[in-house]
UniProtKB/TrEMBL annotation:
Gene3D superfamilies in the cross-refs: Homeodomain-like (1.10.10.60), Tetracycline Repressor, domain 2 (1.10.357.10)
Organism: Streptomyces millisiae
Protein name listed in UniProt: TetR/AcrR family transcriptional regulator
Domain HTH tetR-type: 20-80
Entry keyword Transcription regulation: yes
DNA-binding region(s) from the entry: 43-62
Signal peptide: none
Amino acid sequence: MEQGSRYDQPGQTRPGGRTARVRAAVLRAAGDALAEHGFDRLDLADVARRAGVGRTTVYRRWATPAGLVADLLVEMATESLPRTESGSLLDDLRANARLVCRTLADPRQGPLFKAVIAAATADEDAAAALRRFYATRIAEWAPCVEQAVARGELPSGTDPHEVVAAVSAPLYYRLLASGDPLDEAAADRAAAAAAAAARAGAFVSP
């Protein structure tokens, strides 16, 4: 978390022993509650009950529902699956798109992402945590694009972060706006469109 934020302790520290177990239990409980009821009904006392810890512990450590969501995003970023590398830009982007699709279509993860996005619209600390989450995930996959540039698949100067973001953007549109299916066909179309645009130079930095 940002320096001076009231949430920086849970996001920055990696304590061991009981403290780590309490944090893990609370974050699991928070994810379950968000997936079931959304951000508007996230209650710290309910999270404490689900996690089997004292309310005082939760209130002292996270202070607000938005603070809990911010820390949950930190944990989600560190636990996300690493990228795959096939030696082909299209195959790499397709792997990324399918991973995003599986996550968003998951009966728990999909509602959870909707809830944390809702939290980010209401609280700046949650919004900053969401931006960091996506920056982390995009940075994880950016080397696939950099390698495609090095192989000559893409024009020099292609912005790898923009390419990776272009893959997931239409999938989040399906989750949040259109309600269209989140399946492998949608993932493959998103990857193919991003790859075609990248080859055409759409993501070359000025």
